[in-house]
Task: inverse folding
């Protein structure tokens, strides 16, 4: 088994994100999309492949250390940031091929006009544990 | 298996071990061990005397744990033994446990976890699942909380408002996993209300019952949020509402007003309206005025602006809103609603989309996106 992160993005370069924003869909299209997402997670759970599924708020804060005894410096939110993470699903699957297959299905979530949104998802393998049989 | 009966027994057995001289921390661990043992073995063979079984197994586990600890070192004396006064009843022991677990020394998250385990009789795993954290994280949170409390004596009477805050937090968490935290909070508040006579305990219980009565109507079949105004009121649980209102009226008659009674009164006014247009908004505004007198909270001010918008029209609501800080949670959702009612659909659609970007949970975000989509597709 291998774990993968499927990252969803709020904003990406335009060539990766061409679909109409959700508030411009009809309410029925919004409902269909929500239902697809919920059903997708349910199917992952049923298949024993779901590790985690989380959504993030678009606005965050940048924070860094600013020296001993001083409070950390904060900045942001940066609305101009090009790439924001909207959320993720972590899956535990038998193979890379299976991970690709699932990411493909998720990217086919229905959008405006019921058409698949064809959103680009970023598939990232987790770093695994050192296997005891490596030596 | 009788889960609830078993869970009712947990604080009682912790109290009994305390009377036999056990310190709280070890007694609580021992009863947790016994509880897990009960879950493991009772499905095949449930004992006739559940309480006797639990006391016996917990006492053995306590002695085991004590032996291990004594062998390790002669650790500091666990000064924190529960009352050994044989004249008090087990109900008093249970109330002591509420105060102990919700003590102000503890962070809210720790107080919640400890209360659910020691008073609620839930296992660490169930609590971890309900709060979506790993078991080991929750186990650590609970043992740290117990270390914080070790060695401190309880000053009775304890701090009732700290206990109520914890129960309210549990109630608001709703439910995920196999534990219904809202129902659990109600169960624990009922036990407390039976044990101590305090109008705010009644106020909180009434508030929970009235909110709980509307739960079935709050979500559509596919899980979408349905706001109060849109709910099918025939799906509200009239019996729970009646019980809540009865408890509230008795509490209000004592004339010792508190925040929970006021919030329950507002919930009761909503529950009283057969149709949304029957809602007595002017009276709701008055109760918000009372609430703000008791505690000047920006959230209450925001809700008051909503009520004024309904009682006196959207322009009055918007005027109230402008006096508040727009970084408040749900500020833009409220503004969107008022603008829509004022006939400004375009502005409202943009505000709904903006509010969706600031929503703190998915159900609310999805609802706000849907509102924006509805307005945008109407023209």
Result:
């Amino acid at each position: 088994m291998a774990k993968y992160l499927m990252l969803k993005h709020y904003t990406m370069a335009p060539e990766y994100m061409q679909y109409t924003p959700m508030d411009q869909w009809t309410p029925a299209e919004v409902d269909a999309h929500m239902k697809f997402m919920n059903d997708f997670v349910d199917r992952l759970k049923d298949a024993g492949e779901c590790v985690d599924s989380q959504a993030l708020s678009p606005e965050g804060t940048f924070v860094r250390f600013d020296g001993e005894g001083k409070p950390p410096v904060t900045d942001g939110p940066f609305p101009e940031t090009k790439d924001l993470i909207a959320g993720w699903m972590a899956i535990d699957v038998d193979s890379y091929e299976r991970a690709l297959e699932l990411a493909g299905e998720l990217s086919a979530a229905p959008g405006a006009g019921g058409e698949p949104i064809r959103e680009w998802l970023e598939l990232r393998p987790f770093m695994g544990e050192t296997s005891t049989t490596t030596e | 298996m009788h889960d609830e009966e078993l869970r009712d027994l947990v604080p009682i057995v912790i109290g009994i071990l305390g009377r036999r001289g056990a310190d709280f921390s070890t007694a609580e661990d021992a009863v947790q061990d016994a509880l897990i043992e009960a879950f493991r073995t009772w499905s095949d063979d449930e004992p006739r005397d559940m309480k006797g079984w639990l006391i016996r197994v917990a006492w053995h586990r306590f002695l085991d744990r004590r032996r291990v600890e004594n062998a390790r070192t002669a650790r500091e004396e666990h000064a924190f033994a529960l009352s050994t006064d044989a004249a008090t009843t087990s109900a008093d022991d249970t109330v002591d446990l509420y105060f102990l677990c919700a003590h102000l020394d503890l962070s809210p998250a720790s107080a919640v976890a400890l209360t659910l385990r020691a008073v609620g009789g839930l296992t660490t795993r169930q609590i971890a699942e309900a709060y979506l954290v790993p078991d080991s994280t929750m186990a650590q949170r609970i043992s740290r909380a117990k270390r914080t409390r070790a060695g401190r004596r309880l000053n009775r009477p304890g701090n009732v408002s700290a206990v109520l805050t914890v129960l309210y937090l549990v109630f608001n968490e709703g439910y995920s996993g196999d534990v219904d935290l809202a129902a659990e909070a109600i169960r624990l508040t009922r036990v407390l209300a039976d044990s101590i006579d305090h109008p705010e305990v009644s106020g909180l219980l009434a508030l929970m019952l009235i909110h709980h009565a509307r739960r079935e109507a709050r979500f559509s079949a596919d899980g979408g949020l349905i706001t109060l105004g849109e709910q099918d009121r025939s799906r509200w649980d009239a019996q729970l509402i009646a019980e809540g209102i009865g408890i509230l009226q008795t509490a209000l008659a004592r004339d010792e007003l508190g925040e929970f009674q006021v919030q329950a009164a507002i919930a009761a006014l909503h529950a009283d309206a057969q149709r949304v247009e029957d809602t007595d908004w002017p009276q709701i505004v008055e109760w918000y005025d009372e609430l703000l007198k008791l505690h000047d909270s920006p959230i209450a001010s925001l809700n008051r602006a909503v009520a004024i918008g309904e009682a006196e029209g959207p322009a009055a609501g918007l005027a109230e809103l402008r006096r508040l800080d727009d970084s408040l949670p749900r500020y833009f959702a409220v503004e969107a609603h008022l603008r829509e009612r004022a006939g400004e659909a375009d502005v409202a659609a943009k505000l709904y989309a903006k509010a969706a970007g600031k929503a703190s949970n998915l159900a609310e975000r999805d609802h706000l996106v849907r509102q924006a989509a509805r307005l945008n597709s109407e023209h």
User: Anything to note?
Assistant: The longest helix of chain A spans residues 27-46. DSSP finds two helices and six strands in chain A.
